[in-house]
Prior knowledge:
By secondary structure, the protein is α/β, with parallel strands linked by helices. It has helices spanning 17-29, 32-44, 60-71, 88-95, 110-121, 134-142, 158-169, 184-207, 223-234, 246-254, 262-268, 284-287, 308-314, 346-349, 356-374, 389-402, 412-419; strands at 51-56, 75-80, 100-103, 127-130, 152-155, 177-179, 215-219, 238-242, 258-259, 271-274, 295-298, 315-323, 326-331, 336-340, 384-386. It has an 8-stranded mixed beta sheet with strand order 9-8-7-10-11-14-13-12, sandwiched between helices. Strands 3-2-1-4-5-6-15 form a 7-stranded parallel beta sheet, with helices on both faces. Helix 10 (246-254) links the parallel strand 8 (238-242) and strand 9. Helix 5 crosses helix 6. The chain is globular.
Amino acid sequence: MTSPAGPGSDIADPGLAAVGQPRIEWAGHSMPVLGLIGRDLAAAQPFSDLAVAACLHLTPETACLVNLIRAGGGRVQLAASNPLSTQDDIAAALAALPGVSVSARAGVDRGGYYQHLHRALDCGPDLVLDDGGDLVNTLHEERPELLAGVRGGCEATASGAARLRRMAAAGTLAFPMVAADQSVVRRMYDNRYGTGQSVLDGIMRATNTLLAGQTVAVAGFGPAGSGIAERARGLGARVVVTETDPVRALDASLQGFTVAPMREAAAAADVLITATGSRDVIAAGHLALLRDGAILANAGHFDVEIDVRALAAAAIKITPQVRPHADEYLLADGRRLILLAEGRVVNLVAAEGNPAAVMDLSFAVQVLALARLAGREPGGEGALAPVPADIDTAVARLALAARGVDLDELTAAQQEYLDSWREGS
Length: 425
């Protein structure tokens, strides 16, 4: 029998819990690192009697993270970081658990989205988990009475970390935050391999297009963009990279990608993918350059990388959902442009996000960082810090162990040599 939704929950249908629970269990089978960490957290209880406010994508993998916090003694009040990525059956399954309240519905409007953030904060959080910075921003701007009780938190994305960095520089960040995106393990595994695969998965599900022989433009050659470019090339596409950072542009060029300004890439591309964390990457001026049938997809966090308003203004007809998560914009000159996922993050809207095996490591980094922050006194100086190196190392070792991979160990002589400055040739 399905338990009733937790107190304070606002979900679409509690009856969907029976559908969501098996999907959570399926994801858990591909997340062995969280399983190993969970045993330690259950014994240590670092989150005992602590309230965690979280703004995350409502997916089966996120549910496994929430269960880990519960195992460590914590209570979780959860909102969705993207209404279009919310899976109502997962929200229902989580809301049925003791110690969990969920405020998330698929497709909720902007007002409902922020109402859900406030409901998550109603717990008076000791710790926060954020994905994009909206929860922390709302906490500072609209719920300042709660700031003194917060020990710290963790931000998952580069976009959210950029916002927090500006807050810290302005002296307005009231408690310490850890930037999970700065984790070496997460950047390598989650962004390059996970996002690289799942973004193309979302595009192909939404369009059923063949990438081989097509020209794909990737805006941004950071950890995510480079992974997308690599995977697109592996599927037979010609890949053009656009960048504003000369070091990243040089890296792309040395890897054999064509590097060009967006005005040139837009004119040549069949598929355009933004992965920058900035805004107006595909702007009004680029729309006139696009080919008939060009596909526009965003792999960044917020729906501002593609100027969706300019696209709507230029269209004489908009046909929503020509395929699931694909909207067609007909322009006055007869060209058709296809916008995926309403300009929101395509891998979580049109597909299922990164595979569970990828999120296993990403969430392991976050929960270990959060457990360390749990030992702090409430309040304290606000700063944005990288993930401690020993957490990265611990997660990598657990991941290798789960895969049955052994490492060499330094001998005493090797360690002495590396530690000394006296020995040379």
